[in-house]
Specification:
Helix 3 packs across helix 8, helix 5 packs across helix 7 and helix 8 packs across helix 9. The protein folds into four domains: 293 residues, no CATH class; 146 residues, Sandwich (Immunoglobulin-like); 103 residues, Immunoglobulin-like (Sandwich), CATH 2.60.40; 105 residues, Glutaredoxin (3-Layer(aba) Sandwich). Strands 11, 12, 13, 14, 15, 16, 17, 18 and 19 form a nine-stranded mixed β-sheet that branches. Strands 20-22-21-23-24 form a five-stranded mixed β-sheet, covered by helices on one side. It contains 17 helices and 24 strands. It is an alpha+beta fold. A hairpin with a 4-residue loop joins strand 9 and strand 10.
Length: 690
């Protein structure tokens, strides 16, 4: 693409990662204020002896309907990350987990704890410490807690103060720790063996023929060897147990060691370490039917991929994307490209779109894995991202209006315009982030609970949908032949395309005012004016046959950097309550609970100033006379959640309904256990009929 577009795309990428770093540093609510997994740090002895060990338990209690994850979470999720701050010389072991349970959600096998559990950690106290020496122990943990529908990252900061003493253990505390230790699997001294062959994995584990065996199942600790969701055949063959199941698609360990836990009864297990070798098939009969139906992530991924692709396709008609797509279509209408180069441009444009969508998706997944509640278009919750997009749309509007032409350096456009098409696609994807299509909400929400590879495939589907119209033009000559013949009309049409870009710039200025206050909006508009003057100077030089030159480019970058610095992460000095239409109230979970307890029907919607779909639904369906009358007649309470600035508490509530962001529309019927999740495109008749 053109030099200016490349510079702005680079700057936006840097801005996204800067915003991500700040978001990852944000803290979540502490345990006890809305967390779904309560963790308490318990010491077996508060007075450990010098030179000895003391066991700590991470007593974990999931809320009803929620679950935590084992050290190997299975097809989805991640285990708790423990960040210890310990006194000098004190060393902590890796946590020893109890035997987990199994749960399939959306064809994904999860190794989980649905009931209270306690991973155990051993601290070694250095010798030579005087009695009475304080041993402050601090732990910061990030973990994932899930229900059957959605996952929420949470964090906790735990502390316990020990004092060097005689290692006395109170009888009631000893009984608690004995119960927790019984749930932790014991190491099996005898060596096991495993074999990978023809897409199957077979494990032979030494086990006495006369020993009791119930609820047998093998939980792999080593990842990437077994297909977690595939059925397991467990047979007892003399003094060994043979487990056979489907291997992973690309087994990570073919030579070993392969480690796992063999469950042999309720809350009983053995830690098994297997080396690679030849394992003969079992001649015995199955000891336990442990199969789980051949579940797979494929179907869930394909459904989410299709939804994301449809949503991306619809994004092309949005006012901020349509002009860019139209310009690329006009470039094909000029007829200056042969078949090969037209396809090259189409593929390069698609690569730019998909790269940005996958990149943003990767940032979201990384932030959520680190414990931060973010969703799609999370960067728009930072005023600095808004001001950069404002300047970008002003520049594109002036370019479409004919004020200046964006030069195309040779290093960008060496391969028949492929470099320019790639950057144009990247630009379209960046500008499209505030918008969502009717199929995107559920698809992107599903992506957040899929494994990383599958989730990134869903984000790629969004990009493919966004790029699909230009791909069709590039690869189907008949479609290109239907484009109007080139002529002077193209210049007029180009000026018309500036109108939706100017409307986008106005909308971004309005959003900037909501996020950064009137002062922030004024700064953004002043900088946009200076930006326009610089581009006008560059355009005047071009008309005289001169290049814009590096000086103008440096000035443009300096203008963008100055505006980002001036705006900063500021919010309005006085944060007022969310502006809500008459009869509605700002959303809080406490208010929702009170209304439901009173037996009132409740309509809850989550919106953001930068969400175009949200604003269209509000004007076309929610804030209409017909909807107001219907809600009034049926005494429907209306709660509005404003997510413009990315409230983390609200973000986690949105996540619990399997959505990656806004819009989200919920209807709670009186006495209903769960809300009805409404489509992302509303009509007044739909709401009146609730």
């Amino acid at each position: 693409m053109r030099w200016f577009h490349d510079v702005v795309v680079t700057l936006l990428a840097l801005l996204v990662f800067s915003s991500s770093a700040q978001a990852s540093a944000a803290t979540l609510d502490p345990i006890g204020s809305g967390a779904h997994l309560k963790i308490t740090l318990v010491a077996e002895s508060r007075t450990p002896a010098p030179g000895q060990t003391v066991t700590l338990a991470l007593e974990s209690v999931p809320a009803p309907g929620w679950h935590g994850y084992w050290q190997n979470p299975g097809d989805a999720g991640f285990p708790a990350k423990l960040d210890w701050t310990l006194p000098k010389g004190v060393v902590a072991s890796e946590p020893a987990y109890p035997v987990p349970g199994r749960l399939i959600v959306a064809d994904l096998m999860n190794y989980v704890f649905e009931k209270p559990y306690a991973p155990l950690v051993t601290l070694r106290v250095p010798a030579g410490l005087a009695a009475g020496t304080a041993l402050p122990v601090r732990l910061k943990t990030n973990y994932l807690v899930c229900s059957a529908e959605v996952c929420v990252p949470e964090s906790a900061e735990l502390a316990i103060d020990l004092v060097v003493g005689d290692g006395t253990i109170a009888p009631d505390t000893r009984a608690r720790f004995d119960a927790w230790r019984r749930a932790v699997p014991k190491p099996l001294d005898a060596k096991a063996m495993f074999q990978l062959s023809n897409g199957r994995v077979r494990i032979a584990i030494p086990y006495p023929a006369g020993a009791a065996l119930g609820q047998a199942y093998f939980y792999p600790i080593t990842t990437g060897v077994m297909d977690y969701a595939a059925p397991q055949t467990v047979t007892q063959d003399g003094d060994r147990i043979v487990i056979e199941t489907k291997a992973a698609a690309s087994p990570a360990a073919s030579t070993g060691p392969f480690q796992g836990v063999l469950q042999i009864g309720a809350q009983q297990g053995l830690v098994v370490t297997a080396g690679a070798g030849t394992v003969a098939a079992s001649a015995g009969t199955p000891a336990t039917a442990a199969g789980l139906g051949g579940a797979s992530v494929v179907s869930a991924t394909l459904i989410a991929f299709a939804g994301a692709m449809l949503g991306g396709l619809i994004l092309n008609i949005m006012p901020c994307v349509f002009p860019i797509l139209s310009l690329k279509a006009l470039s094909l209408a000029r007829g200056h490209l042969d078949e090969r180069h037209a396809r090259q441009e189409a593929l390069a444009y698609a690569a730019g779109v998909v790269s940005v969508c996958v990149g943003l998706g990767g940032v979201i997944l990384a932030l959520r894995a680190g414990g931060t509640a973010v969703g799609w278009a999370f960067q728009l919750q930072d005023p600095r991202a808004i001001v950069v997009l404002l300047l970008l749309t002003v520049a594109l509007s002036l370019n479409l209006s004919g004020l200046f032409e964006i030069p195309t350096p040779a290093f960008v456009n060496r391969s028949g315009g492929a470099g320019g098409a790639f950057a144009t696609g990247a630009l379209a994807a960046f500008i499209a982030t505030p918008c969502t299509g009717p199929f995107m909400g559920a698809a992107l929400g599903a992506a957040l609970v899929l494994p990383w590879g599958a989730a990134l495939a869903v984000f790629a589907g969004l990009g493919i949908g966004l790029a699909l119209p230009f791909l069709a033009l590039g690869f189907v000559p008949a479609l290109r032949r239907r484009l109007p013949k080139p002529g002077l009309w193209m210049e007029t049409f180009r000026r018309i395309l500036a109108i939706p870009m100017w409307l986008t710039a106005i909308a971004l200025a309005w959003v900037l005012g909501h996020e950064a206050g009137v002062d922030g909006m004024a700064i953004g508009l002043v900088v946009a004016l200076l930006f326009a003057v610089l581009l006008w100077v560059g355009g005047a030089r071009q008309k005289k046959g001169r290049a814009i030159g590096a000086v103008i480019g440096v000035l443009l970058l300096a203008t963008v950097a100055a505006s980002v610095w001036l705006i900063g992460g500021r919010r309005p000095d006085t944060v007022a309550s969310a502006t809500v239409p008459g009869g509605a109230e700002p959303f809080t979970e406490a208010r929702l609970a009170a209304l439901r307890q009173a037996g009132r029907p409740v309509f809850v919607y989550f919106t953001a100033d930068w969400c175009l779909t949200c604003k269209v639904n509000e004007k076309a369906a929610i804030e209409t006379d017909a909807t107001r009358k219907a809600f009034s007649d049926h005494k429907v309470a209306v709660l509005i959640g404003d997510w413009t600035n990315g409230d983390p508490v609200m973000g986690r509530f949105i996540e619990t309904h399997n959505r990656a962001g806004v819009p989200l529309y919920l209807y709670y019927a009186p006495n209903a256990a769960e809300p009805r999740v409404l489509p992302q495109v509303l009509t007044s008749a739909m709401l009146a009929g609730l």
